[in-house]
Amino acid sequence: MKNTRWWLIRHAPVPNPGNMIYGRSDPAADTGDSDALAALAARLPPQAVWVTSHLRRTRQTAAALRLPGSDMALVERALAEQDFGRWEGLSHDAVAELHPEETRRFWSDPAAEAPPEGESFAAVMERVAGAVGRLTDLYAGRDIVAVIHGGSIRAALALALDLTPQAALRLAVAPLSLSRIDHYANEGDGFWSVAAMNALGTFPGSGR
């Protein structure tokens, strides 16, 4: 039986004093918390396959961890954050004021509804599941360190837990947190288990 281990890391915090929506936008991350990065790096396996999305904040975080392989990470666009379309770069308050009807429609079912010219969280789950499945087959039996996003980690956890998109949105993923899902395969059959969620990460307002 082959055990493929996914080490899911949410990128370092993004300074965002205006509370802007930046899903597919490309702001920089703050990688100045050396203690948090060192604690996270100490938990990660050697000789892993490293993966990031194409967005700068994930590549910056992988580089800041400074582990062998992190500077040669695979870039997987399908593991990027949710695309919020025309809402990108706007604050939540501005979206509600400028697009009231679209906002009401979106919040009536935020898992299935998509922002204008964006994608729904259900669509995020579908593309992330495809990428996770493909890379699990390609690197069966290996450790895969994926430095990605809150939304894509939520989608990967949903795959392992067999959650609906609506249920998956209840999962919170902290910056610089570590979650792990394991895939066990034996002669074509396979199943997932969740080994950790939000290890080491700190939520805003926690006092740490």
Automatic annotation (TrEMBL):
Could you name the domain of life of the organism this protein comes from? Bacteria
Name the GO cellular-component terms: cytoplasm
* Single annotated GO MF: phosphatase activity
| Gene3D superfamilies in UniProt | Phosphoglycerate mutase-like
Recorded protein name is Histidine phosphatase family protein
* Taxonomic placement: Bacteria, Pseudomonadati, Pseudomonadota, Alphaproteobacteria, Rhodospirillales
